[in-house]
Here is the input.
Amino acid sequence: MSNQKQSLTPTAVNKYLKTILEKDKFLISFYIKGEISNLKYHSNGNMYFSIKDNNASISCIMFANAVKLISFKVIEGDKVQLQGAIYLYVKAGQYNINVKAIEKIGMGDLYLKYEELKKNLLLLGYFDQENKQNIPRFPQTIGVITSQTGAAIQDIITTIKRRYPICQIIVFPTTVQGTKGTKEIVDNIFLANQKYQCDVLIVGRGGGSIEDLWNFNEEEVVKAVYESKIPIISSVGHETDTTLIDLVADMRAPTPTAAAEIATPNIDELNQIILTNKNKMIMLLKNKIESNNLKLNIIEQNQYFLDPLLNKRTSFDQTLQEFEYQEQEIQNIIKNSFLQISNLKKELNSAVTNKINITNKNIEYKKELLDYLNPLTILSKGYSISKVDGKVIKSINQLKTNDSINIMYSDGHVEANIKAIKEKNE
Amino acid sequence: MSNQKKTFEENYNELLEIIEVLQDEDKSLDESIENFKKGIELHQLCKSKLDEAQNTVIKIIGNSNEN
Here is the structure.
């Protein structure tokens, strides 16, 4: 190769192009209109996206200092006008637009379509919580509707195998992008419902642009999910992408792995739960036996159990005691009565004695009085009693001269005649 | 045994119910023992299901467009 012509290196070509492009007066600072696609926010604050029309797209980078100045939230599908400059990377020979400013023109067609369909379906109740089915806790068969080749199916199978290897997976290989996608997704949801006993379906795909995910915003797909008798977990794109199927699905998962986790219990945890339940049962039965033992002990210790006749005996003892008490009472009463009688007797005796004494004294006195008043006694002292015609003479008026009177003395009486009558004061 | 025809979920739920019943202090010891026996049986059924050392069965369905 001696007559080799002078060759350029890739570096030289890229550098040359870079010089031409970056110095071109039309490309140093220009305005461009188009639709935002493949939007990514980087953690360092930079924003990466494409600006596209129906036929072409150009990669764009907007650095953090410029991103800060944007007055609205840039989203996929936004129709925008950019101001920027062409920048060429020598290493890759790729160029992009270094965006300095971004301005919204109007929402993108796809975005408008999405919003309109979303509004209609919302009114029809497609997204209502009450229409959602429960995801079974212990599925026997899990259907997966996704691309057979993507990373999503691998993530799903790996996760299910790890968490719940005892269930069956039915894969429905499905085109999930482009014109064929919509029909295949709808057909497979229908097929799973008609022919296969799936307990739950995972429907989805990995990340992509809004166009890549568009099948999952189609009305037919949303309706098929809504009408499915099998509960559906959706997992489309990344967590930041919300497609209409995510809104209508019974459960939405941020990633395919998460979808598989929602669909399955963890077998290790389940083993643990079951073991715990077994131990709990054993403990409960032990407690039951112990509490019954305790009850039995209490019964055994009961005084009536220890001495069955206790009750009878107690009542007998009580009766006896009562009887003894009553007997004592009666004896007391008798004793008291005797005492009372004896006292009364004594009182009576003394009263009678008194009475006799008093009577005796009275008799004595009467006798003395009688003695004192006895006329014979008086006669013996020298007095005499004179009578006329048998009547005691108390006055001279009873007498006349010559009357015969009888005078009585203590030892006899005499007959006498009245000679004269003289009054006292004569 | 009829239990073997039941799904894991049915056995599992029944096991939880039995634990509920075992917690009921009003149940007699005889009833508790009966329930305990049943519970242990259910536990065994659940465990043997989880222990089934089978690999996950993966079926791939030819999709409707290819059929």
User: Anything to note?
Assistant: Chain A has a mean pLDDT of 89. The interface with chain B takes residues 136-138, 140, 148, 157, 160-161, 165-175, 180, 183-184, 187-188, 191, 196, 267, 270-271, 274, 277-278, 280-282, 284-285, 288-289, 291-292 of chain A (CB under 8 Å).
